[in-house]
Design brief:
single chain, about 500 residues, alpha/beta, Amidase signature (AS) enzymes, 11-stranded mixed beta sheet, two-stranded antiparallel ribbon, 19 helices, 15 strands, globular
Length: about 500
């Protein structure tokens, strides 16, 4: 009999199973009991009966044999709810399991206990929805767990499960990892397959996990990464077991690094100081060579984000726009805005920005091997806030009253008519809106660049501000994910971080 879920990493839990110190069934029972009394609200669905059956039959010789895991509710598990964190699909069930789930539970041997909460359709870096309510940060109740993988991060940092799945299309692994003091790795685009039946656009989404240690993420890559025919963008599989086996084997001495905690984004001075100090310590630890340069990334503004909502319209189908009242207001506003202003000219502007971003990133990596920046612009913000920006004036106005909403839709209707006469007008208006209301494009401003360019990036816990975790982000060249693992491992060895929040049961 064990009182609490395992407070170490997932790999050490497997070791404990193999030594006979704990059993998968005991661990599951402790996990379910802890979830039951938790005030984090980070699970939206539990499948105790099937999890219990799996625990009794667990093969602990497998990489994650018997380990209870949380599955982000944007991933499908056959027979489980397939809500995508939206009231619109509250009654929908999954008819199939995602490839990553099949690999994690099959060859990986993990035991999925339920679905962790996410932001609606993964569209925001917050942890509150109409369907599930508010998910809280385990370091401080009332603060956000981030998004969109906020429930997974809260569950792992909160001591409920040792590992949980996540996805990152604009920072949705790294952002909550940073807010919750976890290791969050976004591999090179295509590293872990997204099939079956996954939308390809906007070619930025990478799957992964929220974890307590570097080796947990490396083992997750060993289990889940590799080509799948249902995802034509997926990359070939590495040698079996090589991600974990190769940890610590790369010579990082003399490699060049640029340090810029801001990347053109307004960052809390305390966070900037913490990242600079942590970067300097890492540079000294592994004998990196600092390079004094900056990277001029374009503002990946509203034109780019508008086009990304096409997959959401495809998902909603003929439910839109009658389902608008059931959506998170920010999501509904984004859809109305996109329908009114997105056309070939805004699409062209978006692609031009993407090309410029790719060129800027490539030019930087012609001179350096790594870019170190902040993961988030500040510590975790209030859990009920609609977005991280402290000045969400546009969104606040658009949802302030029924009259404002009608005015908003009327303005958009007028914009659509004007766009039919002057097709370039919507793109110019979006430039103006982006300048006047930076909250529309500021969310994920530090993390989105690596998604747009497809580069691997990792968030590493390095410090705290007012008791809330701070993440340091390192971006690497395409396909050099293993080097980022070793940099994170160097931090982990020299300045280990707490594996669970200080308020979580240990």
């Amino acid at each position: 009999m064990v009182d609490y879920p395992w407070a170490g990493d997932a790999c050490s839990l497997v070791d404990a199973f193999r030594r006979g110190e704990r059993s998968p069934l005991e661990e599951l029972e402790a996990t379910l009991a802890a979830i039951e009394v938790s005030e984090l609200n980070c699970f939206s669905f539990l499948d105790a009966e099937r999890a219990t059956d799996r625990a009794k039959k667990s093969d602990v010789s497998l990489p994650f044999g018997g380990v209870p895991v949380g599955i982000k509710e944007l991933e499908h598990v056959a027979g489980w709810p397939a809500t995508e964190a939206s009231s619109v699909f509250a009654d929908r069930k999954a008819s199939h399991s995602a490839t990553v789930v099949e690999r994690l539970t099959g060859d990986g041997g993990a035991n999925p206990v339920g679905l962790t909460t996410a932001s609606e359709f993964g569209g925001l870096n917050i942890s509150v929805t109409k369907l599930n309510g508010v998910t809280h940060n385990p370091w401080q109740h009332g603060r956000t767990a981030g998004g969109s993988s906020g429930g997974s991060a809260a569950a792992v940092a909160g001591g409920l499960v040792s590992i949980a799945t996540g996805g990152d299309g604009g920072g949705s692994i790294r952002i909550p990892a940073g807010y919750n003091g976890l290791l969050g790795m976004k591999g090179t685009y295509g590293r872990i397959p997204r099939g079956p039946r996954a939308y390809m656009r906007p070619n930025t989404v990478v799957l992964g996990c929220l974890a307590r240690s570097v080796r947990d993420v490396a083992r997750y890559f060993d289990v889940c990464a590799g080509y799948d025919g249902r995802d034509p963008s997926s990359l070939p599989k590495a040698q079996p077991g090589s991600w974990e086996r190769n940890l610590g084997t790369f010579d990082l001495r003399g490699r060049k690094v640029m340090v810029d905690p801001r990347l053109g984004v307004e960052v809390d001075p305390r966070v900037e100081t913490a990242v600079r100090e942590s970067a300097a310590a890492l540079v000294a630890d592994v004998e990196l060579r600092p390079v004094d340069r900056t990277i001029e990334m374009p503002t990946l503004s509203a034109q780019w984000m508008m086009g990304n909502l096409t997959t959401l319209l495809a998902d909603l189908g003929d439910r839109w726009p009658s389902c608008a009242p059931d959506l998170t207001e920010e999501v509904a506003i984004g859809l109305f805005l996109s329908q009114s202003v997105y056309n070939l000219h805004t699409a062209a502007a978006a692609e031009a920005l993407r090309v410029k971003a790719n060129e800027a990133m490539a030019e930087a990596f012609d001179e350096v091997d790594f870019i170190i920046t902040s993961t988030n612009p500040g510590p975790a913000f209030p859990a009920t806030a609609p977005m991280s920006s402290s000045e969400s004036r546009f969104i606040d106005w658009a949802k302030s009253s029924p009259i404002a909403k009608y005015l908003f839709r009327g303005t958009l209707f007028g914009t659509r008519l004007a766009g039919s006469v002057a097709p370039k007008l919507p793109s110019k208006l979006l430039d103006s809106v982006s300048a006047k209301f930076p909250d529309l494009v500021g969310m994920g401003g530090l993390t989105i660049p690596a998604n747009v360019t497809g580069n691997p990036a990792v968030s590493i816990p390095v410090d705290h501000v007012e008791g809330l975790p701070v993440g340091m982000q390192i971006i690497g060249r395409h396909h050099e994910d293993a080097l980022l693992f070793d940099l994170a491992r160097a931090v982990e060895q020299e300045r280990p971080w707490p594996l669970v929040a200080s308020t979580a049961p240990a």
